[in-house]
Task: inverse folding
């Protein structure tokens, strides 16, 4: 659905206000933060990337946090804050799939539940293939590949 030919790194492009590591392939954003960071730093970084992708009016986003290190499984409060922060950044119509290391995913998906209770369309997966399949299914079922406000009728 999203070809390699249309890949673009958005960081530093004039007028985009985009951040390092945010990429666009077709109408989808990809963000893969890597390196040592705290949970709080990671949550803030992902929220900023989600906001940047929304400013670009992309359809959805895959965030792969498997390269982020320096922290263990978040506690309940951290998961609550994560879900609330990412839901606020995503809004009610922007789909976000998070890919995480399995040991960091809560069996009850507390952060995801918090986000969904705030009307966000967010889920977490332990591999990119499942995350992309979920995004493709949501995009196809909801918009047939395009947001209604992004359709060019010319």
Result:
């Amino acid at each position: 659905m999203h070809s390699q030919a249309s890949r673009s790194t958005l960081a530093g492009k004039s007028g985009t206000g985009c951040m390092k590591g945010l990429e666009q392939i077709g109408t989808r954003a990809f963000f893969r933060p890597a390196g040592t960071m705290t949970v709080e730093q990671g949550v803030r970084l992902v929220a900023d990337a989600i906001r940047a992708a929304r400013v670009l009016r992309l359809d959805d986003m895959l965030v792969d946090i498997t390269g982020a290190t320096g922290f263990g499984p978040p506690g309940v409060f951290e998961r609550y804050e994560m879900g609330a922060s990412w839901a606020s950044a995503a809004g009610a119509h922007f789909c976000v799939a998070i890919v995480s290391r399995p040991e960091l995913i809560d069996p009850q998906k507390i952060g995801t539940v918090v986000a969904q209770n705030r009307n966000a369309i967010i889920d977490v997966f332990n591999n990119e293939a499942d995350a992309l399949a979920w995004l493709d299914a949501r995009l196809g079922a909801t918009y047939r590949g395009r947001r209604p406000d992004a359709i060019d009728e010319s």
Q: What stands out?
A: Residues 4-146 form a domain with the Transcription Regulator spoIIAA fold (CATH 3.30.750.24).
